[in-house]
């Protein structure tokens, strides 16, 4: 392993850091649903969320027209629905959801927790109209 003091880099470069532990977040959010955690660091190029679906809950069929999404199951089980048919999900399942693909997610009896990662959407900016 390389000694961290020997890794070259700019003195003012951003530093890698541990943001949390998915196991702890899932354990503390067992009674919750929706986003248990969101990546919120300033200047980031990615968005990431830890999502919890309660037992037998679902995310209805939808398509993301612009962004590919990576989904990693961290707890529970469920089913990914797509035009290719249902695919079982379990801890460790790593799924690529290409932009434009229609998909749904249904949690099993113990619920389902997963991390999603995708390119960050550009923020909306207020600009003056041309010629004004």
Automatic annotation (TrEMBL):
Region (Disordered): 1-24
Stored Gene3D superfamilies: Jelly Rolls
Keyword entries, A-Z: Dioxygenase, Oxidoreductase
Keyword Signal: no
GO molecular function, one term: dioxygenase activity
UniProt keyword Oxidoreductase, yes or no: yes
Superkingdom of this protein's organism: Bacteria
Name of the protein this chain belongs to: Quercetin dioxygenase-like cupin family protein
Taxonomic lineage from the root: Bacteria, Bacillati, Actinomycetota, Actinomycetes, Kitasatosporales
